[in-house]
Amino acid sequence: MKAVAVEPGLTPVKEYLQSQGCQVVDMSSHMEPSVGAVVITGLDKNLMGMQSAIQQVPVISADGLSPEAVYDRVKDYLR
């Protein structure tokens, strides 16, 4: 399974994804090509949208979502 990059500040989401068996990496400008999805806070969608388009990685906004709901979306992309 590909790793999921999580933006800093989303500790509950990161911990929940790890508890469900996801490999989680910190989001950085040097993300591995094996990243299958990116989870952001939703505050900088435009910046991340541009970066993810270059990397062709789906971006999931955690804004207003529970960690469980974020995990459901991550699972859909990583199938």
Secondary structure layout plus pairing:
Layout: E1 3-6, H1 11-19, E2 24-26, E3 35-40, H2 45-55, E4 59-61, H3 67-78
Parallel strand pairs: 1-2, 1-3, 3-4
Helix pairs in contact: 1-3
Task: Provide a descriptive summary of the structure in words.
With 79 residues, this protein is α/β, with parallel strands linked by helices. The chain has a single domain, classed as Rossmann fold, CATH 3.40.50. The protein is 41% helix and 20% strand. It is built from three helices and four strands. It has helices at residues 11-19, 45-55, 67-78, and strands spanning 3-6, 24-26, 35-40, 59-61. Strands 2-1-3-4 form a four-stranded parallel beta sheet, sandwiched between helices. Helix 1 crosses helix 3 (67-78). The chain starts with a strand and ends with a helix.
Shape: globular
Strand content: 15-25%
CATH architecture: 3-Layer(aba) Sandwich
Taking all Cα atoms into account, the compactness measure Rg is 11 Å
Number of helices: 3
Q: What is the CATH third-level topology name? A: Rossmann fold
CATH class: Alpha Beta
E-strand count: 4
* Distance between the ends: 8 Å
How many strands, which pairing sense, and closed or not: the largest β-sheet?
Answer: 4 strands, parallel
Which class of secondary structure composition applies to the elements? alpha/beta
InterPro entries: UPF0180 (IPR005370)
Organism: Alicyclobacillus acidocaldarius subsp. acidocaldarius (strain ATCC 27009 / DSM 446 / BCRC 14685 / JCM 5260 / KCTC 1825 / NBRC 15652 / NCIMB 11725 / NRRL B-14509 / 104-IA)
Protein name: YkuS family protein
